[in-house]
Amino acid sequence: MTNLDELGALRAENARLTALLESHGIDWHLLTKPQSKVPEHPRLSTADKVATFRRLFRGRTDVYAVRWESRATGKSGYTPACANEWRVGVCEKPRIKCSECSKRLLMPLTDTVVHDHLAGKRTIGVYPLLPDDTLSCCRSRRHHLKLLASATQTGRRWRCPLPSFHWRTWLR
What we know:
Layout: H1 3-23, H2 46-56, E1 65-69, E2 76-80, H3 111-118, E3 124-125, H4 141-157
Antiparallel strand pairs: 1-2, 1-3
Helix pairs in contact: 2-3
């Protein structure tokens, strides 16, 4: 069988199958525009991204945490952001712990702080437990699961497993 014969046979089979579909009322027409597997997302401004982050990760606004890491011991963690940290004549670290310092000046969570986090300039944490002992980020178990499912789906779409998914990659 030559290529032309094979092509003719395929066209005849297509015509037969098309007639069969149409006789049963099945819409078979090809889409005029190919569908993208990844949905298109509108371009958000930097301010919109910061606002979205703050809406998704709500918590206290009077304080936020900064991540620290000890090169000597390899230990890491989060501590409340203090405007006086390491200021000569004010901060007495490591002699006095931050939690015991009388000169501690906690810094509020601002759009600039969130922007720097999203841009990868620093790693911050939010305190979801509000002063009235409520959580604003997870209104219920159902809401919590919905947020987790959304984050997991986003991580998969970006081919990034959930534990290593960072919002700061959003600005890059």
